[in-house]
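Service request form, structural biology core

Requester: graduate student, group of Dr. S.
Request type: structure prediction, single chain
Budget code: on file
Notes: please return the result as structure tokens.

Sequence provided:
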Amino acid sequence: MDNRALTRAFRLAAQLLELHGENPFKIRAYEGTASSLEALSFPVADVERTGLPDRTGLSKTAAAKVAEMLDTGSFEELDRLLATTPPGVVELLKIKGIGPKKIRSLWKDMGIEDGAQLRTAAENDEVSKLKGFGQKTQQSILDALDFTDQSRGKLLYPHGEELAHELLARLEAAPGTERAAVSGEVRRRLETIETVLLVAATTNPAAARQALNSPRRPPR
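Core staff response, request fulfilled:
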């Protein structure tokens, strides 16, 4: 499991805590852990578990959760939050421009638990009547839902970048590779990625193909 996956997990935990109206200090602690992981220049997975606090600068509590994530693919607090949140509401957190507080209002006050229900409510002009929303927010929600629908089958840039760099590392390690680089949509940093493109100079094309076609490593 790489640093990006760890960062996403702790950021999701912070969003879920806010969604459930939990302690603001705990929310900030998770956001701080995510930011710290994002800023590290070395793979956290390569650090001895007992050395995580010293090497990463994380608190012992945060480091223990990182170690749990590395060893099991999740951690207890995240599992608890996911177990008490409808899957469709978790998906709503991915919609651009709608924060956890607004999603909480939509969920708790209107019973909205997925994107389809949210679209229906917005198209029927029900969302604008909710306290703290209004016509402008309602239209922004519809625009965000349209963007999400149009992006199905594509990767958001952070995920596309992660995949591109994983494939690049494989290419660079393959026998015969002289040089390799990320190209195309990822290099141009497009918001959504349809095709991950890499270019390489190699004396062993078969080894390069084998490196790219091998299964992705599961999270540790």
